[in-house]
Here is the input.
Amino acid sequence: MSDEKDLKACESTSLNNHVLEEDKAVEGPEVDEDKKELQTIQLYIEELKDRFETKRYKRYLHNVENINYPTESFMSELDSSIKKNTAFVKKIRNLAEPNKDALMKDLENLNLSRYISELAQGIVETKIKLNEVPLLLQICSFLHLRYQEFSAQLMKYWSQNLPKKPSDQFNASKIRTDVKLFSELILYGILPAKESLTTIGNLLIVLTNGDKETFKNLNILIAFFRNHGVEFSGIVPRKMRLLAEKFSLSLPSCDFLQPERQKAVQNLIKDYHQSLVKYIVKERKQLYRMKNDMKRNLETRGEISNSLQEKWKQKNSDFEKLFNLAAQFSDLIDQDMPDIDSDDLANDSMLIKTENVTAVLFDVSRFKENNSTLWDDEETRTFYENIPDLKSLVPAMLYNDSLKEEPSPNVSDQSINEESKLENISELKEPINIDEISILNDQDELDLIETKDDKMKIKTVKGNQSATKDQLDTFFSSLPYCVNRDMIDKAALQFTTTFNTKNNRKKLVNVLVTVPRTRLDLLPFYSRFVAQLAPIMPQVANDLCSQLKNQFRYNFFKKDQVNIESKVKIVRFIGELIKFKIFSKTDVVRIFKTLLSDFHHHHIEMTCNLFETCGQYLYRSPDSHHMTNLLLQQMMRLKSHMHVNTRYEIMIQNAFYLVVPDDKTSSKVALPAAHRYVEYLIFVHLNRSTISFVLNKLRKMNWTDKDTCLFIVKSLSSPWNLKFDNIKSLAQLLTNIYQHQSRSVLMVLDNILEEIRLGMQMNSLESNQRRIAIAKYFAECYNYNLIDSNLLFNTLYSLITYGVNYNEIEQSFADPPLNMMRFRLVSQILSTCGHFLLTSSLRKKLEYFLYFFQRYYWLKKNYLNTLPQNEIDPNVLAIDTLFKDTINNLRINFRLADSSESSKKQLEAKLNNLTANAKEILPNVTISVKNILDGTNNKIDDRLGTSNNCQNEILTSISEDPEEEQDEGEIFQTQGSAINLNDGNKTLDSECSDNDDVALANYNSDEEINNTNENFENTSMKDSNDSDEDSVRIQGPILHRCEDDDDFQREYERLMNENLTSRSQTAVRSNVEIVIPITRDSDKSSNNQLMDVFAFTQNDGNVAVNGHKDDCRPKNFNFQLMTKNLKSSKPMLKLIEIPSDSDLVQNFLTQAKAKQEEKERVKKLILNMNERREMEDNNGNFNSFRSNDSQNNSTSRPMMAKNTGFHNNYRSNNFNRRRYY
Here is the structure.
């Protein structure tokens, strides 16, 4: 019967379990999650109630009014011997959980009335663990219930040991336990409430107010609020509060402290939390700054220093720990965390835990798409990656001593044997029969010794001990014949099981290093051999790498051109070890840099062999790809700048194209022959002495062909492809091309301005050298009169205003605080063309710009002063010297400001003075200094609108002499007949190419250009020498079109058409100017007659005309007419008299008179100019401007071309050429 009942019970239980499982399967995961959350909040509420009730009951028991202390008779019965009491005090000082029963038994049997002070001091000073706090509470509770004075003594020593000031030093681990014990004693009612609450309040103030910079006490506060936060502050953790609100449950409250006191604790801890949030945000910004520095180093230098990597890892680890602690603390006190989610941290590549920081900064996913594998084929991958694990094949007892072996004290001190003294195994006297070689000797008897557990089988050699040296020599002799993977693997296994001793390992390293220099085929197998031994014999790999580095260093500094095979063997051995990850990649990068630093002769071969061995592996590895690419580019640059023989050139090219993938080299499209010739002329052949030659060749190019013209324009717009010293020659070449291809030169200037603007918008580190070259080119174009000063100053103002935030609050993407590129561009432009700004108005404009430039300098300087000195790049700190050198080179009296506020005051004072001058010129225009200063703070999307308007207002009033403005106004009016100067009177036709974005400014005709240039030069010569180069343009009233204007325009066109129609019907008398050659002498020879085809002579006799006689003027002119004899085909001259009143004679006399007047005028101007120069030299008017020019004439001015037909239009005060507006 009992069995049947048990069977039924089992069936019912299984049925119920099956039903429950089906119910759970029906319920979704959300229901399970809600159940778990509900259970969690219910358990928390029950725990709080139990804790509050327990602490309330303990306070009731420990209340002095409720305690019945023992009588004296009871205490006299207890043991009060000194020996046992002192021993008990020592036990308290060395408290341990296992001694709990013994301690409690001694407490009941001992009379400790005379040792209460020692006990209280021992309890306070002892260092306990968190799990020993309940035992100590039990002891304190027993002592408090038995001895009345124990509470006061305990409070006394707690007050003495707890920190009272933020400057007090304390042990963080002990204070964490003490805070918990002290809080429990207060909640148990063992300590006096008034004094103890004051003490713990002061302790919280010390822990919070004294730790708002390092936050080292955060762990202590987390432990306090986790255990007692509800009792002392009334704050429930946010997670539990949200769960209670979700399920509409009420949380119990603690009545230990009044709400006013809890509010004070809440305010204190919230203030500490706000400081913590600010600190976290600050630390994260520093991490981003360090990351940007590493990116900059990776882009510029190709590697990141080890110190910077270690610093970044340490700071990253500290920040992650701090962030996790802050998250816990924020949840405990129910406060918001800073705006950094944990998900973002997990996905942030900056905080990824990795051993290689370069891999963090490298886009691994994109790199793997282009480089899917490290190896070319599967067999190569198997050889270098599938290494047998000798630890699983060999018993541990055979390699334990090699794992414990300490590294040699100094491997570099070992003597390096020369190649001639090394033992060459290939030159053995006795030949070796390969068939007789066996990796394991057949003479040795191999026994298998089985242990009792049959778990391990050990192979031991029972050969003759005296034959061990012979066996080792045989083994070393057989290594050169291990020419496949299986044989070298067996050799590694044999050495591990048979010859693994300290002396044998040293001999093995020497044998591996002394591999024959002609057996380069053994290096991959020897490297695999070492890779197998490295896990169990690390010292073998370390010694081998050290000796290879020493030999490389020895051969590099030896500087002899012999033993090239030994040098190649060393670098190829290093390259093979890299593939097995035995040799460090950092060390091989240093080797590459060392070789490239002296890239000559044998070093070229060593570099190429090293690239051929491991270059492809390094190039395809994500952590070394960028550095390898930079090294390859450096090698190719060195090749292009060196004169190497054909053999070395082919070797370098083979090494480069072996490493770089084929798709990158084959995708390059070959240029046409004409384009390649243009590149050669401009980028290679152009220098100061070949400008005339290059000009003549370029003029012969087919400029009518669209592709050729655009390619020449592109080449002329690329100064970064030239040497920096040849940029000046390129600008001079561009000036002379303007005389023949003006439209193309305008396209080049447009490209230059576009490059400057794109550089300000993109702000890429890779284009810094390109931007420097463009700035130099732009300044040289001003020196050669291709652009005017207004465009120069507009560009300078754009560099210091476009996208720059002068409010110093938020950083700009276009111009970050640590980016000094724009500063260097302005300095480059000013140092190139600043000393040619000689006129008074230009010097005035330059002075005003320097005040704005100084303000920009102090904007950068103030940000650098806020950073630690060790975090700033030394190249950034060079702006002080660069700024002072720029100011000094301009030779202008400029007072430097000593602070940012001083620079702002100087700028404001100058602008106020400028405003007064501007109102005299433009009385109807209102100029605000505040708007000008605010106008420099542009956003990127403002497109320089506000800035340029402000600049135009500034530049308008910078002038000293009104006569200069009037003279220059006349000059620009004359030139405006051919060039559009931003007004609508004269326009330029524009053409847009379908394949090019550059706008072509098209002039009316070449004749009009030449005529305009002549008028321009004549007008400038008539003006005084003090006339400024640039004029102030005052815009007139704005025209608003209406219907009356349209009617007037239609009527005017109708009248003009009628006039043209009527004039076309009238006969027009031709007035053709005939050029008449003049006879040079009276020689009537046949040769002279043939040369003087149409000669002219005057009739000296008196000729009667209309019956009158004129002695003053001849009435007839004799001309010689050349005719052709029909019979003999010889030319004949016939004398013809033409009256003086004929059109032919009158036109000739008019031309002769005009030429004579022109000669006289030019002669007068030259004489006047020489007189003015003599007066200027005597008076010393230009000493300040020409003091340095007289000393450095060869460097400050370009050399004049030797070819008389070649124009060198460098900027001067006496001649003005065409300019670009």
In short: The chain has a mean pLDDT of 74. The domain at 680-916 is CATH 1.25.40.180 (Serine Threonine Protein Phosphatase 5, Tetratricopeptide repeat). Residues 133 and 181 are 6 Å apart (CA to CA).
